[in-house]
Design brief:
Layout lengths: L1 H71 L1
Length: 73
C-alpha cells in the first residue's frame, strides 16, 4: 500500500509541473495577444483621427472653393 502512495507522489510532481508550465505558457500567449490587440486599437484610433482631420480639411477646401465661385459670379 505504501508503494502505491509513493509511486503516486513520484508521478504527481512531474504532472503538476507539466500542468503549471502549460498554464504559464497559456498566460504568456494571452498576454501577447492582449498586447497586440491594444496596439491594433491604438493604430485604429490614430487612423480614425487622421481620417477625420483629412475629411475636415477637404470640407474646408470645398467651402473655400464654393466661396470663391460665388464671389466670381
Amino acid at each position: 500500500m505504501e508503494d502505491i502512495i509513493i509511486m503516486a507522489i513520484i508521478f504527481a510532481v512531474p504532472i503538476v509541473a507539466i500542468i503549471t508550465s502549460h498554464f504559464q505558457k497559456t498566460a504568456r500567449i494571452k498576454a501577447g495577444f492582449i498586447k497586440d490587440q491594444l496596439e491594433l486599437e491604438k493604430l485604429k484610433h490614430e487612423n480614425y483621427l487622421l481620417e477625420t482631420q483629412k475629411l475636415k480639411l477637404e470640407l474646408e477646401k470645398m467651402q473655400i472653393e464654393t466661396e470663391d465661385k460665388t464671389k466670381i459670379l
